[in-house]
Amino acid sequence: MRIVIPDDYQDCLHTLDCFAALAGHEVVRHREPARDQAHFVEMLRDADAVVAVRERSEFPRALLEQLPRLKLISQVGRSAHTIDLAACNELGITVCAGTQASPIAPAEMTWALILATRRNVVLEADRMRRGEWPATLSHRLAGSTLGILGLGTIGQLVARVGPAFGMRVLVWGRDGSRAGAERLGYEFAASREAFFEQSDVVSLHVRLSAQTRGIVTAADLARMRPTALLVNTSRAQLIESGALEAALRAGRPGYAAVDVYEQEPVTGGDHPLLKMPNVVCMPHLAWADRATFELYFGEAFRSAADFFAGRKVNVINQPARPR
Question: Considering 118, 205, 223, 235, which one is annotated as catalytic?
């Protein structure tokens, strides 16, 4: 069968051990993202199966109706909100999604960004490459407050490191975060306003949903200190659209470190945050370490291989008449 993998940005999937699960099938990988939907249709026209790389591509009805050979979408990771499942049911396309997840890689990236930004690592390393000598003062972590918005699995890993640097941990979120803070001995903020006002570092660890979209507002950011840092390795849409750029220009918070953007991929340096010296930007790599790829893609590849071997596993929809 012809299995197409769009959006292999790192051009690395064929180097994974789990790639062997697709042996015997014709596998086509695309590194560059589609220019538009017409181009995406052309990339997938002859595909019997697509291994969809998390949220890098969307699969609306208008696209699926132009792919008459497509029998399977094997989604990397557990979230399939970018796939029109109702259309897949009607068109007979089976959808599989992952069941496993690891919080380790995003938690590590969060701390990499905190340390790099608080100690001006990127800024000063670039200056040295240009032959200049350091010209900034950094911000000490010890004695400062680490604000965790959303004390879930990843948030707990990030919070655990704070006390090792001598940081006070302050939590805000829903009832689950409050209960987690009480269980783990962290302080739960007296109010939303107090959380943003008191935190020297605010790190977002909330799942994106209709309820959490825009959960961080311009008013929240305006309450942060001029020396404070906002870190987002979760989803850009958690912050009110355009609010972070405006807040940074206004000086509250004074710094940001982000790994996610409303429209991805960001190419050609075309994003306002990339033009701000007080921001460290990464290209949505918080999840992208080799161990995570072996875990996530291994499951997606095995689901595809099992499907064509007559074994349907991890199926999340109900096609009326599978192709």
Answer: 235
Lowest mean pLDDT segment, chosen from 49-58, 182-191, 198-207, 242-251:
49-58
Full residue range of the structural domain in which residue 230 is found? 104-281
Q: Are residues 166 and 78 in the same domain?
A: no
Query: Are 174 and 276 contained in the same domain?
Result: yes
Mean pLDDT within 118-142: 94
| 264 among known catalytic residues | yes
Q: Are 123 and 255 in contact (CB under 8 A)?
A: no
Give 3-state DSSP helix, strand, coil % of the chain, rounded to 5: 35, 15, 45
The pair phi, psi for residue 114, each rounded to 5°, is -60, -50
Residues 122 and 161 placed together within one structural domain of the fold: yes
**Do you know the residue count of the chain?**
323
Taking only the tens place, the pLDDT of each residue in 37-84 is: 999 999 999 999 999 998 889 999 999 999 999 999 999 988 888 999
Residue 25 has pLDDT above 90, yes or no: yes
Which of 90, 245, 264, 294 is catalytic? The answer is: 264
Does the predicted TM-score (pTM) go above 0.85?
yes
Rounded Cα–Cα distance for residues 73 and 315 (Å): 10
Q: What percent of the chain is modeled with pLDDT above 70?
A: 100
CATH number for the domain that contains residue 81: 3.40.50.720
Q: Domain count of the chain?
A: 2
Q: Are residues 142 and 26 in the same domain?
A: no
Q: Which of 118, 284, 299, 302 is catalytic?
A: 284
CA distances from 129 to 106, 124, 137, 158 (A): 28, 9, 19, 31
Cis amide prior to 60 (ω within 30 degrees):
no
